[in-house]
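USER: Please consider what follows.
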Amino acid sequence: MAIEMSAGLIRGLGTVVVFVAFVGLTLWVFNRKRTPEFAEARLLPFADEPQPDPTPATETRSTRS
């Protein structure tokens, strides 16, 4: 017995696959075990910026007005 694949059945299966992927991705993103990993990834855009020098620069100011 062969099952005839209609366009509606294919669309329905596609919808189920996308829904399962969405639920899986949502559970993965909001998993508490991933919080430290995402906290580190959140700072990646700033990783290439130079770090401020912890020692204060000596400024020379003139006492003249």
User: Anything to note?
Assistant: The two ends are 100 Å apart (CA to CA). Helices lie at 7-29, 35-42. Residues 7-29 form the longest helix (23 residues). Residues 12-43 form one domain.
